[in-house]
Amino acid sequence: MESERSRLIYTVCIVVSILLAVILACMIFTDKQAEKAHSENLEEFTAKAEAYEDELQALKDRLTALRNGVDYVAETAKIMTGFVVSDVSDISYIREKASAYSLSPVLVIDCLKDMDFIKEVTEAADDSWEIMLYASEFSEEINEKVLSVMAYLNSANRGHCGVFLLRDDFKNAANIQLLLDDGFIGYTGYNDSPKSGQSQDGSVYFDYSFLTASGTAIAARLSILYGNKNAMILAFDMASINSGALTENYVLSILDSIKTNEKNGVCLITSAKEVINELSEINMTEAERRAEYEAQADELQARIDELDKTIRRIYSEFEE
Question: How distant is the alpha carbon of residue 175 from its chain centre?
């Protein structure tokens, strides 16, 4: 009797275990199916939203461009090679690199330097070299020194390229207006994604990369420049080269790289004059830019708002 009861209990246990296993398997299968369905739904909703998100970003970029001015996309990226002089002996180094790499060097002169130094450097430089003015700091007071350097260059029939290298820490509307009032036709700036073009006031702008140490993340920046087909000046800091912070091997690697890319048609190593002329010939006046903005802004903003609502609705439907 006891034996039969034990067998019965054993049989019941086996049956229960099988049932539990079946139930567990069903639950796992159901969860997997639900997870698969959720994943498929997410992909479907994401695909729907992405189509609108791409258009939304393009419209936002267009509206920003209309507000800020005209960002110019050329046929190929333009690179200017600049050298920030720290000593008159730098001229020999620059002349050597210009000859070896067929460069049109831009002599970048710090207006805070002593005027005798500035005179000595400009007299030692080749007449064909362009001069770009710069200040390691900038303010209304320092702008007076900039005006003094400009007056000297004009009196010496040397001139300058017309664009001021304005470091990013000092790039603001007030300082830009000071430079335009001085007679500059544009300025350089620093943007994560290099840009060049015309501002709403008609002044030209392009990017700079100030090279002061080996290992500067210039490769990624150049890659963006090549893709965007904009203009940028590479400003090699001679004080850093002389101290060894910017090594000769690193300088040569950059020059070799841009020359190779020029040979492959990826970029053009050119003069500041050529870049400035190209940007100046965009020929869109402030009134024309304002008219273009006013004609398109409301329509663009309405479409942006519509797309934003559509994208939010798609994701809210998925969450339901």
Answer: 21
Pairing of strands 186-189, 77-84: unpaired
Of residues 162, 83, 87, 164, the one with CA closest to residue 124: 87
Q: Within 13 Å of residue 121, how many CA atoms lie on the same side as its CB?
A: 32
pTM of the model: 0.65
Exposure string for 111-137, b = 16+ CB within 10 A, e = fewer: bebeeeebeebbebbeeebbbbbbbee
What's the pLDDT tens digit per position in 228-240?
Answer: 888 999 999 999 9
Helix (H/G/I), strand (E/B), else coil: 197: strand
Asked if residue 226 lies in contact with residue 261, where contact means CB atoms within 8 angstroms, the answer is yes
Over the chain, what is the mean pLDDT?
Answer: 81
Rounded to whole angstroms, how far apart are CA atoms 109 and 95?
A: 16
Q: In this structure, which long-range contacts are made by residues 144-151, counting pairs with CB atoms below 8 Å and at least 24 apart in sequence?
A: 145/111, 145/112, 146/111, 146/179, 146/182, 147/182, 148/111, 148/115, 149/109, 149/111, 149/115, 149/118, 150/182, 150/183
Neighbouring-strand partners of residue 198: 70, 204
The pair of structure tokens assigned to 188 is 């350089």
DSSP, collapsed to helix, strand or coil, labels residue 194 as coil
Q: Look at the chain and count its residues.
A: 320
Q: What is the rounded distance in angstroms from the CA atom of residue 7 to the CA atom of residue 34?
A: 40
For residues 179 and 184, give the distance between their C-alpha atoms in angstroms, rounded to a whole number: 6
Q: Is the four-CA dihedral 121, 123, 126, 132 of positive or negative sign?
A: positive
